[in-house]
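Backbone-to-sequence.
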């Protein structure tokens, strides 16, 4: 083997390991946590308190939010929230209707909300276990 070649190593890892390794900065939500929040809001047909007087009917698997509210809740910049939502839409995980001062987010019906929430809940519990291991 030449001196400047780096040997390749196969590493076996699962989601729990990556959740353990991810950096946690204050109260800022991770992208996974933000998506879980959107799933939760859509399943409850959440409407932001500032939008409750607006004339927009929320359907199944939808939530009506503002970028500013999500930014404050997730501790992100508004531009980061906008980019995140665009990427989630590009992945096909959400559909969004942009209104003048708000967004209606829909989780596509082809996705089972309960299955997605259960999957992310198990990831979050794995993260808690990883934090416990970290403290030992």
């Amino acid at each position: 083997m030449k001196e400047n070649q780096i040997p390749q190593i196969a590493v076996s890892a699962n989601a729990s390991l990556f959740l353990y390794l991810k950096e946690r900065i204050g109260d800022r939500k991770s992208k996974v946590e933000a998506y879980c929040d959107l799933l939760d809001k859509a399943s409850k047909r959440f409407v932001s308190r500032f939008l409750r007087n607006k004339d927009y009917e929320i359907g199944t698997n939808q939530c009506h939010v503002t970028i500013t509210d999500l930014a404050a809740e997730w501790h992100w910049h508004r531009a980061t929230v906008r980019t995140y939502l665009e990427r989630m839409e590009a992945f096909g995980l959400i559909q969004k209707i942009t209104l003048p001062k708000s967004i209606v987010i829909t989780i596509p019906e082809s996705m089972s909300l309960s299955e997605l929430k259960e999957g992310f809940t198990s990831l979050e519990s794995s993260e808690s276990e990883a934090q416990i291991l970290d403290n030992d």
